[in-house]
């Protein structure tokens, strides 16, 4: 007997553009990382390479794997996608310090005439300073989370593929923005005192808690598109909604709690935190020396 799961999997086809883009990002990053390692072996550790690759893998799992086949029929599967795109992949990618390896991995005929002049322009520096301000990063993530989960908007995204793609792209983009002040990937600098980051992370749990509580305790299916789909995983649409809400509630709390604890430990004992030592050394010492010597071969 052919199940609904088998039908969905047989009707699903891999998104070639997404998968090709993710593979290209890996190739460029690894190429650049190898070049950086050849010049300064201790500048970007293998752990950062592993973090970047894990982040890209999480992005693929969200929008390039067969998981995508279930997002139209299961809110839980859809919520897994959102969590991967906002809470898991962005911080891992940023922990990989992607700027330097990507610049070193791109062809010089692209970087020299395009990336170099743009990155040096006053307008780019102004815009980068604005969009990476912690207040704007927090607001962008909160508005995206709440806005895309409004019933009318959410159901419209399920009906129209282009809007669905825009939804996922915006979740990934605001995920990078949200985690930027927390991770502070090189060559960025702190815009706030570091002790405000745990508060920043705690406040981020509030819109997630409100949304997940509403979905968990609502006595009806909020997103009516899931009422017309086949029952998945042996649960009703209302049970699926409750499962998705619980998944969001627990996962987001843990994902935000862990870095808050790490940052607090870094503040209380900076000389004993190996991750803090690596960041200080990389951001202000060897990394700047490497840029001075090589000039990135792009500027």
Quick structural summary:
The protein is an all-alpha fold. Helix content is 75%, strand content 0%. The longest helix has 32 residues, at 237-268.
Q: Percent helix among the residues?
A: over 70%
Q: Whole-Å distance between the termini? A: 62 Å
Instruction: Give the number of DSSP strands.
Output: 0
- Which parts are unreliable, with pLDDT below 50 for 5 consecutive residues or more? 273-277, 279-299
Q: Whole-number average pLDDT?
A: 85
β-strand percent reads under 5%
Could you spell the SSE succession in H and E letters? HHHHHHHHHHHHH
Instruction: Work out the count of structural domains.
Output: 1
Backbone structural class: mainly alpha
Any descriptors?
299 residues, mainly alpha, 0% strand
SSE layout and pairing:
Layout: H1 4-11, H2 16-39, H3 46-63, H4 75-95, H5 99-105, H6 108-120, H7 122-131, H8 134-148, H9 151-159, H10 161-183, H11 196-217, H12 237-268, H13 274-294
Helix pairs in contact: 2-3, 2-5, 3-4, 4-10, 4-12, 8-10, 8-11, 9-10, 11-12
